[in-house]
Amino acid sequence: MSNTQQQTAAPAPPRGAFLVFEGADRAGKSTQCGLLVEHLKAQGVPAELWRFPDRTTAIGKMIDAYLTSQAEIDDAAVHLLFSANRWEKSQELQRKLAAGTTLVVDRYAYSGVAFTAAKAKPGLDRQWCQAPDAGLPAPDAVFFLSLSTEAAAARGGYGEERYEKADFQKKVLEQFQSLRGPAWRMVDASQSVEAIQQQLREAAGAVVARCARGAPLGRLWEGGEAGGQPLAEISTNTAQH
Ligand code: Z5A
Ligand code: MG
């Protein structure tokens, strides 16, 4: 950027924060997302809980049929459906953020890349998997709930859906590791629900405050694999798993 551009660039307006939760199966993503949204609202922060896939749309219904094994869909085609499911919500997502609503989002494009790349199908390498999501809004923070497959199994075992098998979940976790970027915060999900929530509240609060002061919204996959801005001011549990 030239000096002239730097001098004339307008400051980013205040907005809501875009907070994504990713992680191992049964790591407690949905539990923690729900608790965080309630906490933010109680603090007077406008907040909504979102999740991907959004199974309520026409595309989401196709994805649901696939995940519950009611439909067979080609691996490349279903990958594009998961991405399309994010694109169809992206305008609304940006409107909500611009209006000051913080979005707590249960899974996003990182799950999309990790689950398809873990299939190790010819032609569906990580670069191919990332391409359809390029240009989507990038989260301000990605909270990755880290849990071993053994600890996940101890939480009652995996469910009935297509990907809920220990061997495959290990491959997914390896793929997630290679997607880590500057906006990621690793959270040890083997702790109690309350301990995890406390750390998340502190970390999320700092991001919400930063976005309320005005912060540009990044794009996937700019600014490192994860996109978004580095979260230097956040101190949280940074357990490396
Ligand atoms: N997928 C994809 O392929 N491509 C994409 O682009 C996207 C997704 C976006 C969607 O599953 C599937 O789609 C997913 C990835 C794929 N496939 N798999 N596998 P989902 O998100 O709908 O999955 P889910 O049913 O919500 O399961 P989950 O996300 O794996 O679980 P969780 O949300 O992490 O955990 P939880 O429901 O909060 O808790 C699980 C249990 O553990 C529950 O009994 C809790 O009470 C208990 N729990 C929670 N926290 C704790 C702690 N701290 N201690 C002890 N017990 C706990
Ligand atoms: Mg969940």
TrEMBL record:
GO terms for cellular component: cytosol; mitochondrion; nucleus. Pathway: Pyrimidine metabolism; dTTP biosynthesis. It is an enzyme of class 2 (transferase). It holds the Pfam family Thymidylate_kin. Transmembrane segments: none annotated. One of its GO terms (molecular function) is ATP binding. This is Thymidylate kinase. HAMAP family: Thymidylate_kinase (MF_00165). Belongs to the thymidylate kinase family. It comes from the Eukaryota. Its EC number is 2.7.4.9.
